[in-house]
Each structure stands twice: as structure tokens, then as C-alpha cells.
Amino acid sequence: MTASEYISISEASRRANISRTALRKHIKVGRIVSDNNGKIEVASFNSWLASKSHAPQSTGLLLTDTIPFDPSLPVFPTLQDAEL
After folding, report:
1. Tens-place pLDDT, residues 21-41
2. Which pLDDT value is given to residue 48?
3. Sign of the C-alpha dihedral, residues 25, 29, 35, 41?
4. Would you state the pLDDT for residue 71?
5. How far, in Å, CA of 26 to CA of 29, rounded?
6. Who's near 40: CB < 8 A, 6+ residues apart?
7. Residues of the chain falling short of pLDDT 50
8. What are the strands, taking DSSP E only, across 1-80?
9. Other CB atoms closer than 10 Å to residue 24's CB: what's the count?
10. Are 6 and 36 in contact (CB under 8 A)?
11. What superkingdom heads the lineage (predicted)?
């Protein structure tokens, strides 16, 4: 393969909109192929990215990282009150 068929971990993390640490975890478990120099194989990355974009998002929590407000749930002023 030529050098143009590889991208850096930083570039791949920007393209996937995830952290470099998260990307390294995908590399470690074999979802994405990389060389010994830390470069990511573009074909492997594109295949993984396509499968990631087709994954169903089951809740709004995954999209926003914010817990939706539900007025029927109890609200506690402190964590200790919630644990009782």
C-alpha cells in the first residue's frame, strides 16, 4: 500500500468526530486496521465509519449526553437525599 492509503489517528478522529483515545480502543480490538507507525488504513477506517453511521441511535440520551427532564421523576436537592 502507498502512503496515500493511510491517515493519522488525529485525522481519523476528526473525521469520525470521536476522541483519539476512543479511536485507539477501536484499533486495539481490531475494528480498524493500523500499521506499526500508528497510521490508519483508509479502507478499514471507511468501512468502520460506514458501519458506525448505520448503527441505530435508540435514545436521545446518546445524541445529546443530557438526561431529558421528566417532571414525574423525584428531584433531590443533594446526592445524599437521593441515596436514602
Report:
1. 999 999 999 999 999 888 999
2. 92
3. negative
4. 66
5. 5
6. 6, 7, 8, 9, 12, 23, 27, 32, 33, 34
7. 1, 58-61
8. 6-7, 40-41
9. 15
10. no
11. Bacteria
Predicted local distance difference test score (pLDDT) of residue 60: 45
**Which regions of 1-84 does DSSP assign to beta strands (E)?**
6-7, 40-41
**pTM of the entire predicted model:** 0.58
- Asked whether 9 and 20 are in contact (CB, 8 A), the reply is yes
Please count the other Cβ atoms lying within 10 Å of the Cβ belonging to residue 8: 14
Average pLDDT, the chain: 78
Would you kindly state where each structural domain of the chain is located, as residue ranges?
3-83
* C-alpha span between 84 and 1 (Å, rounded): 61
Task: Dig out the grid coordinates for 37 from the structure.
Answer: 507507525
Residue with cell string 443530557: 66
